[in-house]
Amino acid sequence: MAIMLSSIPVSELIRSHEDGIQVVRYGVGAYVLLLWIAVSSIVGVRKRWYRFFYVNHWVSTVVFLGLAFNHVPSYARLPIYASIALVVTDKTLVGFGYLLNNMTIRPIRTGFKKFRRGSSKSRELQVLAMGHPVKMVVPIASVGIAASAESTTVIRISDLPFKWKPGQHVRMWLPRLGSLEVHPFTPATCSNFLDQRAPESQDAEEHGLLPTESTEQVNDMILMIKAHDGLTKRLADYRDEWRSLPCPNASQPSSSLVAFLDGPYGNTPAWEEYESIVMLSTSTGISFMLSILNYLENLSFANDSRLQTRHIRFVWANRHIEPVFESTVTELLCKNSSALRDSGVLVEADFCITCSDSKEQPSSPDMSSIDPFAHLRHSRGRSLIGKPPLRIRNPNDPNDWEDSDDESTHTFQNSPSTIDDEASRSSEDTYVEGRSDEQRPCLADLELAIDEAEPSYWSRIKIPRWTRKSVKLAETCQCAMLRHQERKCKWRQSPPFILRQYGTRPNIEAVLSSAVPRTSVAKTMVTVCGNKVGNDARKAVSRINMDFARERRESGVHFWAESMS
């Protein structure tokens, strides 16, 4: 092809209308487009600009098929027809599955049928709905931790009509927060694939208010979303706004967001075949591990013979203390591991906070010096130094205005050091300064003075106006303050199988050495979801398998990595 192109001028290749040259022109365009698809599909482009990669891949594919269709003769277009049929079939199946995932029939109660004696049932209408309502998850926490900064949003989507396996991911679209943004997330739960009906009860409430048998299976999906930019940041802002409402759970529904889900995607190994599983994760990668644990718990609850797991080591590292996020993880971990621990499976969990401020120092400084409201204050500007303080005068009182000329002739006498001290003290005070009730101005008198003012007088006063630039508040670490609240209020009570460590990173080499001893013959899986931890775990597993190849160990180790963006 290169020899053929070298013999044809570029101008003739572009402008010629001959049939032979047109065939060559379409062929060159197809080759250039294939090269562009290969270059734009490298790993770096996919990770950093996935949306660009996705749109470019499909547009380039359609254009390539069009160029190839015009390049080859009519009798050789059968492979092109087959390719077009595959693309159309793929998109048709994806669209059909998308509709099935997001189209549900929901019952709506319309009220009581009739006001009859002994009739307490309401009429239900079956309506067709698109999308799934999003519920904000706010665990019950003690006083003091709800005000801390949380970078992770936990949401729940209930009664999903499809099933997903542990470790798979879904693509979520929130039209209200981003009309053109679709992001992949890994659920922290696994769909209920087992029939877990409660046994019939013969108690006094058999025909009363409490149901004795539930035939509906709860198929909830919990997503843990880290706030970065774009959709995830807007979701975190929406969560903060929703939490600021007065009693949001009582006054209105949990959330007005509607989510559309696409998937699930991905394929994972059979976790139940491994006797020992070591789970390593960071930040929101914990959702990948919790879904596996939920799957194993369902098998244990059903006494499934496929479950061979006897030991689970759970290691989670997070940068800062996030009480609500940690409370959700602890709740799911305890819930999903209860049946496993009851059946004799050894479950060990390590929670590591890597922030150095979270580490308890031997000689801890006085926490009173830590100002939790420092980010809300602004220092007094230098432009007001040397000017008299603002005074509100009563326009109907002539005596109040007699000294105005005298005051204007005097200079506001203060030394620079005194002014600086007053400014610094003012910046350190809270918004509501501690005064006695006698020193506070009377609000009723102030309102009366304003109401009695004449418009003609106030219209003669020129009020200077200026715009203050919005200052972006710097995010400060609250780990030290939260640790102080933890020791003071004792609101954190970890289960006995969870070990919490502060100010340190997990030692992957030590974790694998203790979980996989040299004399162990158990079938072991090491799964990791995290970038830095994943690299350390991959190196440690390579050394273990190298020792097994040199007959220094009794067995090797399987490895599974889930990448994080």
From TrEMBL:
Compartment(s) where it occurs, according to its Swiss-Prot or TrEMBL record: Membrane
Keyword Mitochondrion tagged: no
UniProt keyword Membrane present: yes
FAD-binding FR-type domain location: 133-271
GO term, biological process aspect, one: intracellular iron ion homeostasis
Membrane topology type: Multi-pass membrane protein
Parts of the chain that traverse the membrane: 23-45, 52-72
UniProt entry keywords in alphabetical sequence: Glycoprotein, Ion transport, Membrane, Oxidoreductase, Transmembrane, Transmembrane helix, Transport
GO cellular component: plasma membrane
GO MF terms held by the record: ferric-chelate reductase activity
Bias kind Basic and acidic residues: ranges: 422-438
Annotated region described as Disordered, given as residue ranges: 384-438
Similarity section: Belongs to the ferric reductase (FRE) family.
PANTHER family from the UniProt entry: FERRIC REDUCTASE TRANSMEMBRANE COMPONENT 3-RELATED, FERRIC/CUPRIC REDUCTASE TRANSMEMBRANE COMPONENT
UniProt protein name: Ferric-chelate reductase Frp1
Species the sequence originates in: Didymosphaeria variabile
